[in-house]
Design goal:
Oligomer: single chain
Order of helices and strands: HEHHHHEEHHEHEEEEEEEE
Structural class: alpha/beta
Helix content: 25-40%
Number of domains: 2
């Protein structure tokens, strides 16, 4: 196995960053795990230890059933949640059962798992040391380039937002408004001209959604919209936390993995 010359790699990276004009950065799960945020495997273990009673029994039924189909690896919490939601759809959330789990129990289990996940991530996030993340974004903000500075992440924690706001760095994440900021789909493909005041703002694209994104339903029309909430102490009642949003080829947002509040 060839050894990596760290000094040479750093110098090459520095050269690229010095002369490249259109730069984008991608933050994967490792960037959050390094700050103590659990990954899906760790979440799976923690969730199982926190569930009790019927929820734990139904969780194990779903997990054991998945182990017969997911053979290349251990079933994780995303697999389990997806299966629970299939059960909810198949049974229409009634007393009908699939592999011993009723639709009503699946709905209850779904909500309990999502609440636990939310609490776990929020707790870890609150004590994370974001000093290095703040330094990175301070450097990125100082760059004066002809293109927007874009950051992409699959992480749905709020580490990046906290880091940017702690340093008072302006950024845009696709939401507009003040009272209940809503997602503006056209902003994904919007070209920012040099004369635009926001041209040097950092663009933050959370391609798997965020802890602060929610579905909100209009009680009169039953229409749903995606809104963003600021600092969250508790999950809002009668709102659906939206995670794992996928950008399709038509730049529409479609939820593939969401949290029930």
């Amino acid at each position: 196995m060839d050894k990596i010359n760290v000094i040479r790699e750093v110098r090459e990276l520095k050269t690229h960053l010095s002369y490249s004009k259109n730069i984008g950065f991608f933050f994967g799960a490792g960037s959050s795990c390094a700050l103590g945020i659990p990954n899906v495997e760790q979440l799976t273990v923690e969730i199982e230890t926190k569930l009790t009673g019927d929820n734990l029994a139904n969780f194990k039924l779903v997990k054991n059933d998945l182990e017969t189909t997911v053979t290349t690896r251990k079933a994780n919490i995303e697999d389990i949640l997806n299966q629970i939601r299939r059960i909810r759809e198949l049974t229409r959330e009634t007393t009908k059962e699939y592999e011993g789990v009723s639709g009503t129990n699946a709905k209850q289990l779904d909500k309990e798992i999502c609440t636990i996940i939310y609490d776990i991530i929020a707790e870890k996030e609150s004590v994370a040391n974001i000093d290095n993340t703040k330094k990175f974004f301070a450097w990125l903000s100082l760059l004066n380039r002809d293109f927007s500075k874009e950051v992409f992440t699959t992480n749905y924690d709020l580490i990046i937002e906290k880091s940017l706001e702690a340093s008072q760095i302006p950024y845009f994440d696709g939401f507009v408004g003040s009272y209940e900021p809503f997602f503006w789909q056209e902003s994904i493909d919007q070209f920012v001209s040099k004369n635009d005041l926001t041209q040097n703002w950092i663009r933050l694209w959370k391609i798997h959604g965020s802890l602060s994104w929610f579905w909100k339903e209009d009680p009169k029309t039953n229409a749903q919209k995606i809104i963003r909430i600021g600092r969250i102490v508790d999950i809002p009642v009668k709102m659906t936390s939206l995670l794992r949003m996928k950008l399709t080829t038509h730049t529409r947002l479609s939820p593939s993995y969401y949290f029930q509040a």
